[in-house]
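User: Hey, my collaborator sent me this sequence without any context and asked if I could get a structure. I don't really work with proteins. Can you help?
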Amino acid sequence: MRVQADRVSVTGPHGTLLSPTSLTVSGGELAIVHGEPGVGVTAFGLALAGRLKPATGTVTVDGGDPRKIVAIVDSPGVSEPDGALSLQVVVGEELELAKRPANKAAIASWLAEHDAAAFATTRFENVAAVTRTRLLTELAASREDVGVLVLDTPDRHTSDVDSWARLAREHAERGLAVIVLTATTPVSVLPEKPALCGALEQPDPVRCAPVETPAETTLEATVADDTDKTSGDQE
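Assistant: No problem. I've predicted the 3D structure and written it out in structure-token form, which is a compact way to encode the shape of the chain:
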């Protein structure tokens, strides 16, 4: 799985929202992207997810339609849940989006499995920011065909950088391509050197999951083949 943005820019009614930006992230990798507070960094995330057409440049996603493969998490004004809804209602809506059972029993079971049953009837805006981001990310990752997660400015909710950075790494370790958009956290505080909105040359993403090289695959196949031959000879 890989998502590649090549010189992507976005314009709005009043001018440029995002200057040309390039980024490539593969499955098992984590990239942190930093932009100025405002709609520009979110516009980049929406372009990656196929939700916004770039003015210039292209977005390429392995496997087909980015709207199915790229899940954008908690995007302000787009996929951000209504804070007045209870957590159980938000979870139910997300489970339906993932085409999973979303009746009361299924919702209660999901919340219990994710250590959030105690907050079922709590207004979503009153659930701790760390918990909200964790649950929304888990729900997005559970959608069928999703191979790329874009966490949209989790730093707008909390100054606890490690909370969302650890979460992002965990999902990258599972093999997803993970991109975290940031805006309010100073670059000096970010856990990795970030890619920058408006830049074409970017630092390499952080590899979180091991890569099986062709050589390793060939070796495994050879060992298995030799084992089969030995077993056959013994028979």
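In plain terms: The two ends are 43 Å apart (CA to CA). You can pass these tokens on to your collaborator as they are.
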